[in-house]
Amino acid sequence: MGTTRSTPPVTKLADARKAMYQQQIVAAAEYEFSRTGFADARVSDIAKTAGVSLATVYKYFGGKDEIWDALNAARMQEFVAAVRVRTDGIDSPLEAILVGAHAEVEFFAAHPHFLQLHINEGLSWASASAEAGRGGQRAAWRTGMEMITRAAELAVDAGQITHLSPRIAAALVISALQIWLTDWVSEGKTTPIEAVADAVVAHLRVSLSAGRA
């Protein structure tokens, strides 16, 4: 009867150290990207903010583009998870979209540097999944767009959205997020985020169900 070999403690420690440094570097990069924009962010500043040497950054990442991709991938995984937690179990497809939009506003508010770096890019979020955007950013926004489009397809099939295609409905959701969150930031984040989320939901409730009898 064979025996199962466990992972050596040294390997586990090395893996844990690698994950720790990667998370530390990505968090620092998120701050630097939000502060200066991707183009002007320097890897040396990312290393300084992370509290590691430049050699350590290059040990785990090939450069600024690779860090950018890792950041966007990680945040989008968290974004999707946050929406699913709030929408699982909701029977109404339209209501799931609206509850999801509320969660999405709260997610960005909870990650202000991630929000700011996307505002800095100056792109339409609804089209960043196409040719606009940079590297992993396009994949991240494509994931978000596809998730909301699938929800809109269910709402169309259920007769809850009757005047819009699923993709246009999804684009309206994403555009509303960008408009309200950008305004919230420009106004100094003085409005409670719950009120911002409620305003987005109220707008979408009218916009998405406008064609219903």
| CATH fold annotation | Tetracycline Repressor, domain 2
**Quaternary structure of the protein:** single chain
CATH superfamily: Tetracycline Repressor, domain 2
What sort of overall outline do the alpha carbons produce when their principal axes are compared?
globular
Biggest sheet statistics: none
What's the pLDDT, averaged over the residues?
89
Specify the number of helices.
9
Please identify, by name, the CATH architecture.
Orthogonal Bundle
Which CATH top level class fits? Mainly Alpha
Distance between the ends: 69 Å
Q: Over all CA atoms, what is the radius of gyration?
A: 20 Å
User: Which class of secondary structure composition applies to the elements?
Assistant: mainly alpha
Short description:
It contains nine helices and no strands.
Task: Report on this structure.
The model has no long low-confidence stretch (mean pLDDT 89). It is built from 9 helices and no strands. The protein is mostly helical and 213 residues long. The chain is globular and about 55 Å long. The relative contact order is 0.11. The chain has one domain: Orthogonal Bundle (Tetracycline Repressor, domain 2). Keywords: DNA-binding, Transcription, Transcription regulation. It holds the Pfam family TetR_N.
List the helices and strands and how they pair.
Blueprint lengths: L8 H28 L6 H8 L3 H7 L3 H24 L5 H18 L1 H10 L14 H22 L8 H21 L6 H17 L4
Helix pairs in contact: 1-2, 1-4, 1-6, 4-5, 4-7, 5-7, 5-8, 5-9, 7-8, 8-9
